[in-house]
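Problem statement: downstream parser choked on a complex file, so we are re-checking the raw output for the 2-acetamido-2-deoxy-beta-D-glucopyranose run. The parser issue turned out to be on our end (a line-ending mismatch), but while we're here, posting the original submission so the record is complete.
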Amino acid sequence: MFSEDGSGLMPARRLLLIGLVAGFALFVSFAVYVYQGELTTQLWKPALDAALEKVHLRRLSNQNSSSTSEDDSPHPMPFNVTDPLSGYVNVIKDREPLKMHCNVCAMVSSSGQVLNHEAGAEIDKAECVIRMNDAPVTGFEKHVGTRTTIRVASHTSFQFVNKKKADLLVKNKGLTLVAWGPDHSMKTDGKGRIFNGLSKLAKELGDDIDVYMLTPQRMAYADKVFEKETGKPRQSSGSFLSTGWFTMILATEMCDQIKVYGMISDEYCKKYPQDETRYHYYASAGNGHECDLYKRHENGRKNSHRFITEKTVFSRWAAFHNVSFHSPSWH
Ligand SMILES: *[C@@H]1O[C@H](CO)[C@@H](O)[C@H](O)[C@H]1NC(C)=O
Ligand SMILES: *[C@@H]1O[C@H](CO)[C@@H](O)[C@H](O)[C@H]1NC(C)=O
Ligand SMILES: *[C@@H]1O[C@H](CO)[C@@H](O)[C@H](O)[C@H]1NC(C)=O
């Protein structure tokens, strides 16, 4: 039996107690809710920040591109997503197309800039060392390193590569030579002058080096990339692509990380108008200055390289691939 003031509680007090208990329970569950919310926020916040920063970086680097600037599609646009290295074929029929992958690539520019630095030892640390055209190693080891894994050569430089083959090719067992040129020079029916030279060389050097060339589809793709990046059709705008263009594309396809040595940024010549660095490190000093040549070509109406524009484009690609610029640094 409940007495009014004994074992039982007054209805008002009972209500108060129920209110207190319910309030406490509510308070506890609210606190747990807030705590968990904070916890999950802490868990995903860094990932979100990183993603936002990435998008921001891409936006930034896309800002001045005349192509569709708001998309986050990769630069350069891939040639073939499932088979990135397709389109580099062996000049000897029935041999396998190019297959190569490197964790770290050192891409060594042919610019006289390399002589201003002694990056040779650092370059040699890279798993793969990429050189261009007939740029030598012998006599320049302190600046450009000693090893060559891949040499990318243009149709115009092929004769020089061939002339210096004892030094550039024969010494480098296991070397990969990749050549590019306009379709008529690469015809495989006996009428392609550069193709003929390449296949003769490949047969002569046997298994010591592998010689590849770009297919016509690859060549057309390189032009398409130029148009997409600059908004100007390559050919009708009077420009030639440089070997650096083809080499940078190849590097983005086969290297996890690309360390570029001796390449100047698009701002360099404006920043250092008195700069007298020579165009090629292996040319004699009287053969012209890199910045003079770059400026002349940038404004040339016909048959001109857009070296400076290409550098602007490379800095955009650096946001999509692991590319860093050394000696001189671009920062
Ligand atoms: C875009 O161009 C403007 C003016 O031409 C320049 O000031 C700015 O730095 C450029 N931005 C990027 C991200 O290249
Ligand atoms: C990409 O390469 C794969 C394998 O070589 C091929 O089957 C496919 O057709 C290629 N795709 C394009 C768009 O060229
Ligand atoms: C670039 O690659 C190096 C070596 O794998 C790595 O340490 C670095 O974090 C990478 N940087 C970016 C921005 O991915």
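For whoever reads this later: Residues 94-326 form a domain with the sialyltransferase cstii, chain A fold (CATH 3.90.1480.20).
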